[in-house]
Amino acid sequence: MSPFRLDLAALALLAPCAALAEDAPAVPASVSTCVSCHAADGNPLVAGVPILAGQREDYLQSALKSYRSGYRKGGMADVMEIYAKELSDSDIEEIAKWFSAN
Ligand code: HEC
Fold first, then answer.
1. Which residue in 5, 21, 35, 52 could disulfide with 42, CB within 3.0 to 4.6 Å?
2. Which ligand 1 atom is nearest residue 60's CA?
């Protein structure tokens, strides 16, 4: 994805929120179960949990789909499989947009 398209995604996310609140934009509901480990902005304080902030949107989508299908194994993948199994395709799109724009 080009930097231009990323900027558009960030604007699309932030613009409606800016009208509602001057603080940080509201965290989408699909992200709420991820916050305890990855933090709302994708910069976790927990050791061993990967940073998601600023990661490419297409990579986040493929990582989540690989955990959901059980294809991605090893390391702490079993933990992620539990959470990814609860996600729909549209949840994954929303989550990937959120963290890539942070
Ligand atoms: C209990 C803690 C925990 C929760 C809750 C959690 N994760 Fe994770 N996540 C991890 C750990 C640990 C890893 C590393 C897994 C591995 O070794 O593959 C990870 C890996 C990932 C990765 C892959 C990162 C990369 O660089 O490849 C993504 C994407 C991700 N998580 C997204 C999410 C999302 C989205 C949610 C919520 C639906 C979530 N996680 C909930 C702990 C958690």
1. 52
2. 29
Q: What is the pLDDT of residues 54-90, one digit of tens each?
A: 999 999 999 999 999 999 999 999 999 999 999 999 9
- The response to whether residue 62 sits with its C-beta less than 6 Å from ligand 1 reads no
Give me the residue label for tokens 């993948």.
77
pTM higher than 0.85: no
Taking CA atoms only, the protein residue closest to ligand 1 atom 39 is: 34
Domain count, the chain: 1
Rounded to whole angstroms, how far apart are CA atoms 87 and 15? 25
Range of the domain at 72: 27-101
The CA distance from 48 to 51, in Å, is 9
**How many Å separate Cα 19 from the centre of its chain?**
23
Protein residue with least CA distance to atom 11, ligand 1: 49
